[in-house]
Amino acid sequence: MKTIISLSFALFISLLNLQAQELSPQVLTTAGDSYMGSAIQLDWTLGELAITTIETPNQKISQGFHQAYFFTTLQVEDLPTAVGTIKVSPNPTSDWIELQMSFNEKQRIQLLLIDLSGKTIWSEKLIGQELNKKYSLKGFASGNYYLIFQFAGNKYSKSFQINKQ
Known about the structure:
By secondary structure, the chain is mainly beta. It contains one helix and ten strands. Strands 5, 6, 7, 8, 9 and 10 form a six-stranded mixed sheet that branches. Strands 1-2 form a two-stranded antiparallel sheet. The longest helix has 15 residues, at 2-16.
């Protein structure tokens, strides 16, 4: 009887010290990294060792392939020709680019020039219906850049790849 009471007491004391395990997401892989920019986060992995997914209507348990929370908050359409047109020339260029913009009504536009690493080189806000602009690229390194037109309300977008020689 003393043994049962002693074992019960020891079991009770050991249960008081129990702690739940805490799991944080981990990936076993040969390579990977995470980068955070001003507008985007990029996480990547290479060579994961195991892949498994078990799904029920209410749950999903998966292993392998870099896991992330994925959601879309808005849909941006390419600029329809009914709204307007944008022409960029010359491309490729060595010194400057000229923009010719014509819209069916006055537009508010955020213009961005971005390098291939995602860094914004310059930006400018434009307002108008018929716009002609010329920008110098003389101080920029040779390479590819993205010229992005973001329209007010983020409903439309238009982008061009600029080849600076």
